[in-house]
Amino acid sequence: MTTKVTKIVVACDSFKGCLRAAEVTAAVAEAAARAFGPDCRVLAMPVADGGEGTTEALAASLPGAVWHTCLVDAPLPELPQVEARYAIAPDGSTAFLELAQASGLPLVPDGRRDIMRASTLGTGQMILHAVEKRCRHIVLGLGGSATCDGGMGVLAALGVEFVDSLGHELPPCAASLGRVAEIDCRGLRDDVARTRFTLLTDVANPLCGEQGAARVFAPQKGASPAEVELIERGMAHYARLLGHTVLLPGAGAAGGVAAALTAMLPRCQATPGAAFIIGRIGLAHALAGAHLVVTGEGRIDRQTAFGKAPKAVADAARAAGVPVLAICGSAEPDVDPGALGFAHIVPVTPPGMPLHQALQPDVARRCIADCGIFRNFAPDFNE
User: Fold this and answer.
1) Both 264 and 318 in a single domain?
2) Adjacent-strand bridge partners of 169
3) Exposed e or buried b for every residue in 317-354, given b needs 16+ CB within 10 A?
4) Cross-strand pairs, 207
5) Model's pTM, two decimal places?
6) What is the reported pLDDT for 4?
């Protein structure tokens, strides 16, 4: 006798640059409802890991959260300012922000990426906007950055100065990392210093080295091999000024923002973003009585194991004894589903479809609907 599916939990992250986590989760939930019929209960719980969609996932868990917008500097100074959104908890004490809103890679057109000059200044301005609204706890997601500036931009917006050996103030960007002779915190705003910060890291990478911010992530942001080495040397120099925080797991998140803020802000600590978010949205409680969990992200590869939301969802599901199906736009060849905690990985993009076409939101939704996510998975779940 087979077992009928009565409850499926869908907890997907975004397909970056294409669909928000809520949109991916809704599309999969609709596919599950069609596949298993009206007797199946489908629970949609969008997730994130510190990157794109972090604020939306956290705000959804707080009925009454209020959204705010502010105009901040784009990652490159010549680009128009961007309108960044963040949420404040109903009691007004905590603000939920994500760096991707102000300093994210999608904010820089492909042909204009310049990793050496890109800055997180806009993220610092967004933080100030929340602090000036009397928020005394900032929860900041650190994924999806266009930058590798070691957090210089954020700190510069908060009043910290970076000076060279001649006492000249440096622009807060990767090109300045190797020239910093002093980090002057005397201008750090008092209200910022009194604020508690929780940084949500989406990776476990260190600041420097073969697995560090420059060598692993700078190429994804448009850096040439020569620029990667320049940033690595500059970051190693900068790391000596920051001190022990460079050794913390996740110090390389957002091009070193995690290392810099934990070093310079007195009430700041970093934590894995995915675990924090699935804890806040109550995923463990939702898994009770579930027969299946579906999670996913735009691309599943070896990096998925290092702090990404689908891996955290799979860990929670394993603890609850619930099998996990993962979907993605594409998967790295030879990636091992079992090593990530997945029963199966289902890429939804048809073979041969050009990337620019697959990234169109309507096309992506149709791919999710048409790929037969549940067709061959766990037939014992069907009547």
Assistant:
1) no
2) 163
3) beebebbbbbbbbbbeeebebeebbbbebbbbbeeeee
4) none
5) 0.90
6) 62
